[in-house]
Amino acid sequence: MSENLFVVDHPLISHKLGIMRDKETSTRSFRQLLREISMLMAYEVTRDLPVVQQTVETPLQQTQVPRLEGKKLVFVSILRAGTGMLDGMLEIVPSARVGHIGLYRDPKTLEPVEYYFKVPPEMGDREVVAVDPMLATGGSAVAAVERLKKLRPRKIKFMCLLACPEGIKTFHEAHPDVAIYTPAVDDCLNDKGYILPGLGDAGDRMYGTR
Ligand code: PRP
Ligand code: URA
Question: What is the residue with the minimal CA distance to atom 4 of ligand 2?
C-alpha cells in the first residue's frame, strides 16, 4: 500500500463508521455521524499545517505564540456527498475558505462528469483539502485533483470516509504527491463500482434520495 496513505485508526471514528455502515441507520443519524467523523478527521488532516511564531502580551508578560502561517486553508467539497463532510471540518477550522467541484459518476461508464467548479481566489498561495466520502474507482477524486492542480495550490490532500485498494491505486498512480486520509480501507469494489462491504451510496444515504 502507498506511503502517502494515512489510515486514521481511532476507536471513536471506527465506532461511528460502524453505525454508518448499518443499513438501518437513519438519514438523520447518517448525516450527524458523518459530521462528527469529519471533525475528528479534520484534526488529523491539519496536523502538519505550518505555523509561525508571533509576539503577544499576556496579562503578565510578552511571549511567543504559534499562529497558522499563510493564507487561509481551502476545503473543497466534491459534490454532492462531499458537502456532508464540510460542516464538521468547518467546526474545527471556521475560518477556512470553501470551494465546490460538481462531479457525478456516469452510471454506465463510471467516468466522472463535471458540472460545477467554484473555488476561492489566490489558490496558488493556499493549501487545499479535497473531501469526498467515497474513494471507489478513484475516477472522481482523480478528476477533482487534476482540476485543482491547474491552479497550482501550495499543497493538496484528499480526505474521505471509506477507500478501497482499487481507488487508492488509481489515485496514487495519477497523483503520487497527494496524501490520502481515510479512517478505513475496505476489501474491494463490486461489478457496479460500489465499495464492499462499504455503506452503499453515500449521497443517497445522506440526503434520503433513494
Ligand atoms: C459518489 C461519491 C464519489 C464517487 C466515488 O458520488 O460521493 O464522488 O461516487 O466514486 P468513484 O471513486 O468511482 O469516482 P456520486 O457520483 O454517486 O455522486 P453524488 O455525490 O452526487 O451522489
Ligand atoms: N459511491 C458511493 O456513494 N458508494 C460507493 O460504494 C461507491 C461510489
Answer: 201
**Looking at the annotation, which residues are catalytic?**
105, 109, 201, 204
Domains of the chain, with CATH numbers?
Answer: 5-49+70-204 (3.40.50.2020)
Cβ neighbours of residue 109 closer than 8 Å, sequence gap 6 or more: none
Q: What is the pLDDT of residues 70-98, one digit of tens each?
A: 888 999 999 999 999 999 999 999 999 99
Contacts of 35 (CB under 8 A, 6+ apart): 84, 85, 87, 88, 91
Centre of ligand 2 from the C-alpha of residue 130, in Å: 17
Distance from the alpha carbon of residue 86 to the mean position of ligand 2, in angstroms: 18
For 7-29, the pLDDT digits (tens) are: 999 999 999 999 999 999 999 99
Query: What is d(CA 90, CA 75) in angstroms, rounded to the nearest whole number?
Result: 8
Name the pTM for this structure. 0.95
| Grid cell in block for residue 102 | 460538481
